[in-house]
């Protein structure tokens, strides 16, 4: 991931306040996001810009984005108090990661069934965990690199925006109530993906392809990280999805902040840091077929 100090501005941006996103308005999706401790902690905004974008100038593009006063006064960021506010920070440095975005279907998750992580009924195989109750094979595959099923999804596919979005949804927020059946995770991932990613039919091959350029971004001010959160957490994320199709120069910003640990610790008996702990804690998984 590259980092760059903010330099002279080239691109300028404007908020497209009239654009709406289906996943933020869908009642069923809202209920799931609430269950997964993400409702009110994830949002999307649309912006346009005035210069032709090329992938090679992604650093300049993102630097200019965070430097633009119209962005600073309109870009939403979730504060530690749980309220959305405008960024309104003097950004001094940004990091930008180009995220592959080529998938057009959720077929990439089929190996979860063939390797027993998910049963044919859609039930997620449960695990016994030394420290955490109600653990399952899906979260083990997502989080623990030396687990038996980590390689079920290739490292190349794990870099894809579709997989990253799926992982964010599955792991949820601090007070997440996990699903027993995978369908809700996949359906919600599909809905957000369709909302955010643009597709186009190639005039020569007639094949439909994803045409969005996806950038994972972080911004820093003099005090340190300021966007998408003030602290590093994989479940705090921000992606810019740039759409150059149909002659439009615009993009969507998808941002989420993981639940504030101090606030959550007063609300939940679970101790903070569960996602980090799961990366190293010993695990023994048992196939409990009678539970499905």
Automatic annotation (TrEMBL):
Its annotated compartments are: Cytoplasm, Cytoskeleton, Cilium axoneme
- Write the record's keywords in alphabetical order, separated by commas: Cell projection, Cytoplasm, Cytoskeleton
What's this protein's family per the entry?
Answer: Belongs to the CFAP300 family.
Keyword tRNA-binding annotated: no
Described function: Cilium- and flagellum-specific protein that plays a role in axonemal structure organization and motility. May play a role in outer and inner dynein arm assembly.
Superkingdom per UniProt: Eukaryota
Task: Please verify whether the record's keywords include Flavoprotein.
Answer: no
Q: Which Pfam families is this protein grouped with?
A: CFAP300
Name a GO CC annotation attached to this entry.
axoneme
InterPro entries registered for this protein in UniProt: CFAP300
Protein's recorded name? Cilia- and flagella-associated protein 300
């Amino acid at each position: 991931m590259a980092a760059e100090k903010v330099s002279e501005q080239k691109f300028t941006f404007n908020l497209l306040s009239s654009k709406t996103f289906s996943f933020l308005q869908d009642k069923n999706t809202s209920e799931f996001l609430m269950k997964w401790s993400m409702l009110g902690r994830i949002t999307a905004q649309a912006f346009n810009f005035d210069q032709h974008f090329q992938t090679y100038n992604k650093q300049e593009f993102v630097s200019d984005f965070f430097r633009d006063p119209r962005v600073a006064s309109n870009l939403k960021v979730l504060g530690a108090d749980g309220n959305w506010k405008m960024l309104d920070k003097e950004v001094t440095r940004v990091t930008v990661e180009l995220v592959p975005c080529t998938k057009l279907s959720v077929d990439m998750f089929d190996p979860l069934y063939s390797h027993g992580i998910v049963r044919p009924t859609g039930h997620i195989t449960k695990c016994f965990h030394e420290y955490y109750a109600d653990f399952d094979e899906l979260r083990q595959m997502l989080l623990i690199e030396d687990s038996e099923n980590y390689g079920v999804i290739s490292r190349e596919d794990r870099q894809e925006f579709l997989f990253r979005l799926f992982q964010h949804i599955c792991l949820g927020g601090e007070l997440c109530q996990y699903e027993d059946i995978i369908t809700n995770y996949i359906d919600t991932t599909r809905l957000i993906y369709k909302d955010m990613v643009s597709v186009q039919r190639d005039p020569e091959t007639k094949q439909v392809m994803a045409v969005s350029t996806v950038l994972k971004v972080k911004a820093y001010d003099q005090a340190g990280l300021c966007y998408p959160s003030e602290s590093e957490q994989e479940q705090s994320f921000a992606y810019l999805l740039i759409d150059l199709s149909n002659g439009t120069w615009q993009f969507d910003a998808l941002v989420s902040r993981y639940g504030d640990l101090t606030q959550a610790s007063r609300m939940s008996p679970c101790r903070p840091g569960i996602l980090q702990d799961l990366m190293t804690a010993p695990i023994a998984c048992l196939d409990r077929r009678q539970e499905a």
